[in-house]
Design goal:
The protein is of the alpha+beta class. It has helices spanning 3-17, 60-73, 119-122, 168-178, and strands at residues 26-34, 40-48, 52-56, 80-83, 88-96, 99-100, 103-104, 109-110, 113-114, 117-118, 124-135, 141-152, 161-165. It contains four helices and 13 strands. Strand 1 and strand 2 (40-48) form a beta hairpin. Helix 2 (60-73) packs across helix 4 (168-178).
C-alpha cells in the first residue's frame, strides 16, 4: 500500500465515523418571466437547506437535557424529540407569530421583501426547526440546527415564498445551550 492510499483510507474512515448531518429536502422554485416581446420564460432554481453548526462546552448528555430549555428560551414552543438515538430534537412545521424572542421574524429568516418591507414581518411564516447533537469528545458537543420555512401573504392568495435562515436563530439556540448548568 502506498503512503497516499494509506492517508486516503484514514480520511475515508474518519468521514464514515461522523454522524449524519440533518439536511433539508431539495427545494425547487419556478419563476415565470415575461420577455420584452411578450414571450414567457420559466426558470427553475434548486436548493437544499444546510444546517448551521456550533460547538458548545458541554458533554452530550448535558446538552441533550438542556435542549428543550434552549428552544423554550428562544420562543420555540411545541418542540419535542424527533429521534432520541440520533439526538434529534425540533419543532414540526409551525406558523409563528410576527415576533420570536421579542424580535421581528426578519431577524431570523429572509423571505424576500415587498416595497422594502421584509415579508417575514408581514406574511404568515411557517418554520420547521431541527437540532441534532453530536459528541465531539467528552466535554464538547456539536450543535447542528436546520431552519426551513415558507411565508404566505396574509392579505391575498398566492404561492408561498421560500425563507432562508439568517443564522440568528441557530446562534441563539447554541448560546442558550452554552449557558446551561
Amino acid at each position: 500500500m502506498t503512503r497516499s492510499s494509506g492517508f486516503l483510507l484514514l480520511f475515508l474512515a474518519g468521514c464514515a465515523a461522523q454522524a449524519p448531518t440533518p439536511r433539508g429536502p431539495e427545494r425547487v422554485s419556478t419563476v415565470a418571466l415575461t420577455t420584452a416581446n411578450d414571450g414567457m420564460v420559466e426558470a427553475s432554481v434548486r436548493s437544499r437547506a444546510e444546517p448551521r453548526t456550533a460547538n458548545v462546552l458541554l458533554p452530550l448528555d448535558s446538552a441533550w437535557a438542556a435542549l428543550p430549555g434552549a428552544y423554550a428560551a428562544v420562543g420555540l414552543t411545541g418542540a419535542g424529540v424527533i429521534d432520541e438515538a440520533a439526538r434529534q430534537f425540533g419543532v414540526a412545521p409551525t406558523t409563528l407569530p410576527r415576533r420570536l424572542d421579542n424580535s421581528p421574524l426578519s431577524r431570523f429568516v429572509d423571505c424576500g421583501s415587498t416595497r422594502l418591507i421584509p415579508n417575514a414581518d408581514t406574511y404568515a411564516v411557517r418554520l420547521q426547526v431541527t437540532t441534532q447533537l453530536v459528541a465531539e469528545g467528552a466535554a464538547i458537543t456539536r450543535v447542528q440546527t436546520l431552519v426551513e420555512g415558507t411565508a404566505r401573504s396574509r392579505e391575498m392568495s398566492g404561492n408561498p415564498v421560500l425563507c432562508t435562515s439568517t443564522g440568528e436563530l441557530e446562534r441563539r439556540i447554541a448560546r442558550q445551550l452554552q449557558r446551561a448548568p
